[in-house]
Amino acid sequence: MKSIRKFAYAAVLSLSILAIQPTLAAAEDVHGSFTLTHEVHCQKVVLRPGDYVFSIKSTGPSELLTLRGLRGTGTDAMLLVHDVEEPQPDEAEATRLVLVSRDGQSFVSAMELPAFDMTLRFAVPPESPSK
Question: What's the whole-model pTM score?
Fold first, then answer.
């Protein structure tokens, strides 16, 4: 009878430790949405005007950004983002998509997510020399 009680106690203890232990699945998901009013380039993906939802999953040394177009934009993309940093104290507290203009086209240079303590940086083409 004592051995059954010891076994039951060990099983309950093991299950409680597993239930308390944090897991990757319990990590806070990074997700949100944004609206584009014109065509924007994000790395090698062209995003048409419209509403989008995004989610970010950690994949080791880089982050996986998933974009899904809503209401007929027809654009879905998955991007590996290698340049992820903590936001600077002087940066705005609002979540924002930072766009730069190059040769009449818009490019995403950063996605600032201060609520999740991260800023994603994207490669943009260099500026053309002035003529």
Answer: 0.69
In a domain, 116, yes or no: yes
The answer to whether 102 and 77 are in contact (CB under 8 A) is no
Q: What is the pLDDT of residues 16-56, one digit of tens each?
A: 444 444 444 435 588 999 999 999 999 889 999 999 999 99
Q: How confident is the model at residue 92 (pLDDT cuts 50, 70, 90)?
A: low
Environment class of residue 66 by beta-carbon count within 10 Å: exposed (0-12), middle (13-18) or buried (19+)? middle
Would residue 63 be called left, alpha or beta, if left means φ above 0 and alpha means ψ between -120 and 50 degrees?
A: beta
Q: Per the domain annotation, does 126 fall within a domain?
A: no
Q: Which two tokens stand for residue 16?
A: 């409680």
